[in-house]
Every structure is written in structure tokens, then in C-alpha cells.
Amino acid sequence: MYDQPRPNQAAPAMTFEQMLERVRHEGAHPTRERAAEAVHHVLAALGRQLTGDERVDLAQALPVEAALTLTAQIPDTRHLTGWGFVKDLAARTGVSPAVARWDTGAVLAVVTRLAGPDLLARILRRLPGGYALLFGQAQLRRPEPAAA
Length: 148
Description:
The protein is mainly α.
């Protein structure tokens, strides 16, 4: 399956350079290069977890450079929880889980603004538990099915 752009979609709300500056500010990164590294690592990890229309729609909401990082990843068959996402990111990048969590929060805070509330809600419904907190949202429990 190839991710295809949807016709008549608006251009991303910010350039990649603006995105890097926001991530640099959110994550208190000392350089733009460090912010770019965080963006690429986190979006690559998200690209391995997100599928379907939500993946395509998020790619269209992101600046082109960020969208290419997201969509260049082949979705993983392992669906990681939010904490599993952070641990996997830490292992792949050689940083501590605390640093991986910090970078994830900084990048996904900017992604949240770009995606908007409707797309973000769809993304969170598609992903396993634990991602809402990574996106800076309240983690609400899903209702348990009633026992018969």
C-alpha cells in the first residue's frame, strides 16, 4: 500500500524550518541540528506505528521534509504501547528512556498543533494505549465492555 496525497488538501501550516524552531523551543534543544535529529527520530518511530488514512492525513498536515520521514517507514507489525514506543525509540537511538520521552514530547507537541484536534483524535483511536500523554493530551480510559 502506498500513501497517496489526497486532492484539495491545504498546505502545511508551517515550514520545516519553523517546525524545527518550535521543537527546539519545546525541547530546549541547544541547536537546530539537535532539534532536527529529534524530529527525524520521533517521526520515523511514529511512521512505524501509524497506518491507514490517519498516516496519510498526518503526512499532509506536516511540512514536506517531516512527511517524508514519517512515510518512509514501513509500518511495524508490533503495535507498541506509548511506553513501548519510548523504550523502542531509546533503544534505536542509543539514548536513555528519559531523553527519548523528552524528545517525543517536544516533537509530538508540535505535531499536535499541526494535526488539529479532529485528526489527533483519529490518530489516538488508531494507536494502542499510552499515546495520548505523548501527544500532551489527557489519557482517558476506554470504556470496558459490559459483562453479560
